[in-house]
């Protein structure tokens, strides 16, 4: 069969960590094949072997009967293998068009037809539903979702036999995800072998034909999606049955902690007001570009506000930098974990202890290493971060585990307000429920918690109230039983009910 891919007995070690052990699986053209497993199961590592980024210790990759030696990413690309990574590899200062055609540009061709290049880029981008995106804009200006689409365009610009999507939808909203699915179906019907990695099982059922489940660096099984249900899939991934995903809420909601009035941001946000109380979880929903992240960045101090007022426990504050935000008791876990959430090259321990404001671990200015290690280990255990300890660099962790470090950093800090921007993006089902539990605990400790999420069932499950933003303004707020998906989507899309 055309475009048949086989990975045979792949093993890969990193120092003492066995990331992959004799993993084998086969996928073919005309199917969407899911790769499932908990954070750290080895999915991305397996795909990095396929993309030529990692050399396996043992094993083979066979494409259409031909045994490939994938000594570097270029070779893999030339064989028609495209991998779209969880963490993007875009050049920030270059334009959208330049990024899409970067391989051609890197060849150092003397004559580049910029006009043709831009119009081809615009065509590709439009075919993914971003007709309005100006392809001459630098990538650094784009939202995470838009950057994702640029990554996908990079893969589509050449004929690919195998295309791997490593958690593509994690940064996309519902509508964008549907667009992506149409594209994936089209690729599948054209005979491309599509490999799809996601922690959202609904998506796997919507788009995938078969699934290979991995656990602890091994393959558990390969199944046909039509023959299996979610519960069984989760069991195979986690190795146990998951009880309830959303913890029951017991928090007593107290006095207002954070009050934002008439917040304005240049060009983006117009007159946003909201209040969060002690012990309350306020959800923020909206389509990408609605301004949720921007509002929170301004409240935190990462961006300047053009007008409006922020009060913390009744006292007017104006955070001009994240540092000021932190000393005023506000913490924020950003959506872009690579850019702002964690320092990848530093150790897990350093990252976790980075924001510590109130010192339990210093006495007279002297660092108490024992106490620090204890605190770090407690965080690692509480969040089930998959690591032997605090010493390894964050870059060596799987994507979902990096997200947990970003969270742990704030858990170790004394705060009044905690803002979480897409906290469970890329996090596996088991760890998701752990994060929900943490959100719950933090609220029960009396903090005011704000959660931005594009995952509606998640927001409804954890929030007491949900504010919906559209085009830079709050279009509505729903609480209690009024929080249902239809009403929230209608508010987000500006549909009158
Ligand atoms: N460069 C590296 N150095 C050391 N260890 C690594 C490296 N890359 C991956 N690992 C380890 O290999 C294991 C598998 O990681 P991998 O990123 O493949 O997981 P994953 O299944 O993609 O998880 P996620 O769902 O969180 O993205 C993890 O224990 C991870 O810490
Ligand atoms: Mg991964």
Question: Would you kindly provide a written description of the structure presented here, covering whatever features stand out?
Answer:
With 497 residues, the chain is α/β, with parallel strands linked by helices. It folds into 2 domains: 5-238, Rossmann fold (3-Layer(aba) Sandwich); 256-493, 3-Layer(aba) Sandwich (Rossmann fold). 34% of the residues lie in helices and 26% in strands. The chain has helices at 43-50, 73-78, 96-100, 102-106, 114-127, 144-156, 174-189, 201-207, 230-238, 292-300, 322-327, 337-341, 348-353, 369-382, 399-411, 429-444, 456-462, 485-493; strands spanning 5-14, 17-27, 32-36, 58-63, 66-68, 81-84, 162-166, 193-197, 210-215, 218-224, 256-265, 269-277, 281-286, 307-312, 315-317, 330-333, 362-363, 366-367, 417-421, 448-452, 465-470, 473-479. It has a 6-stranded mixed beta sheet with strand order 6-7-8-3-9-10, sandwiched between helices. The chain has a 6-stranded mixed beta sheet with strand order 16-19-20-13-21-22, sandwiched between helices. Strands 2-1-4-5 form a 4-stranded antiparallel beta sheet, with helices on one face. The longest helix is centred in the middle third of the chain and has 16 residues, at 174-189.
Content-based structural category: alpha/beta
The total tally of domains equals 2
Strand order of the largest sheet: 6-7-8-3-9-10
CATH class of the largest domain: Alpha Beta
The N- and C-terminal alpha carbons lie at a distance of 50 Å
What's the helical proportion of residues? Answer: 25-40%
Main sheet?
Answer: 6 strands, mixed
Give the name of the CATH superfamily of the largest domain: P-loop containing nucleotide triphosphate hydrolases
Strand content: 25-35%
Total number of helices: 18
Briefly note the CATH topology name of the largest domain.
Rossmann fold
| Cα shape | globular
Q: Let me know the number of strands.
A: 22
Unreliable sequence segments: 357-364
CATH architecture of the largest domain, please?
A: 3-Layer(aba) Sandwich
Bound molecules: adenosine-5'-triphosphate, magnesium ion
Oligomer: single chain
Report the mean per-residue pLDDT as an integer: 87
Rg to the nearest angstrom? 23 Å
């Amino acid at each position: 069969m055309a475009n048949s891919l086989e990975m045979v007995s792949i093993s890969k070690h990193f120092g003492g960590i066995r990331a992959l052990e004799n993993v084998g699986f086969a996928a073919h053209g005309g199917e969407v094949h899911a790769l499932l497993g908990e954070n750290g199961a080895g999915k991305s590592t397996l795909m990095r072997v396929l993309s030529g980024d990692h050399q396996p210790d043992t094993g083979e990759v066979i494409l259409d009967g031909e045994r490939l030696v994938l000594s570097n990413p270029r070779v893999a690309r030339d064989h028609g293998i495209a991998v779209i990574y969880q963490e993007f590899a875009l050049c920030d200062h270059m334009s959208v068009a330049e990024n899409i055609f970067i391989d051609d540009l890197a060849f150092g061709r003397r004559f580049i037809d910029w006009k043709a290049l831009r119009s081809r880029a615009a065509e590709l981008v439009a075919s993914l539903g971003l007709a309005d995106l100006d392809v001459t804009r630098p990538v650094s200006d784009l939202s995470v979702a838009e950057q994702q689409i640029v990554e996908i365009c990079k893969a589509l610009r050449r004929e690919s036999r195998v295309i791997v999507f490593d958690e593509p939808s994690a940064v996309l909203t519902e509508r964008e995800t549907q667009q992506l699915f149409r594209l994936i179906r089209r690729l599948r019907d054209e005979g491309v072998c599509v490999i799809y990695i996601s922690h959202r099982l609904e998506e796997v059922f919507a788009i995938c034909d078969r699934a290979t489940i991995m656990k602890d660096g091994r393959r558990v099984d390969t199944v046909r999606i039509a023959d299996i249900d979610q519960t069984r899939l989760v069991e195979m991934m986690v190795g146990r049955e998951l009880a309830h995903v959303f913890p029951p809420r017991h928090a007593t909601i107290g006095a207002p902690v954070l009050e934002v009035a008439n917040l304005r941001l240049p060009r983006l946000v117009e007159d946003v007001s909201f209040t969060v109380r002690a012990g309350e979880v306020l959800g923020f929903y909206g389509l990408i570009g609605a301004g949720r992240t921007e509002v929170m960045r301004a409240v935190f101090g990462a961006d300047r506000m053009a007008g409006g007022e922020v009060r913390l426990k009744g006292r007017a504050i104006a955070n001009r930098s994240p540092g000021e935000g932190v000393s005023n008791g506000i913490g924020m876990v950003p959506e872009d974990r690579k850019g702002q959430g964690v320092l990848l090259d530093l150790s897990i321990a350093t990252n976790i202890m980075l924001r510590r404001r109130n010192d339990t671990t210093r006495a007279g200015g002297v660092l108490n290493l024992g106490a620090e290690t204890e605190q770090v280990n407690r965080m690692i255990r509480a969040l089930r971060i998959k690591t032997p300890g605090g010493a390894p660099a964050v870059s060596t962790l799987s994507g979902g585990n990096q997200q947990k470090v970003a969270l742990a950093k704030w858990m170790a800090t004394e705060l009044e307000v905690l803002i979480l921007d897409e906290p469970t993006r890329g996090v596996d089902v088991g760890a998701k429920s752990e994060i929900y539990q943490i959100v719950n605990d933090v609220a029960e400790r009396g903090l005011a918690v704000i959660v931005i999420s594009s995952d509606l069932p998640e927001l409804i499950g954890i929030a007491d109230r949900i504010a919906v933003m559209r085009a830079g303004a709050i279009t509505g707020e729903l609480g209690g039983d009024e929080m249902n998906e239809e009403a929230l989507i209608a508010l987000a899309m500006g549909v009158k009910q």
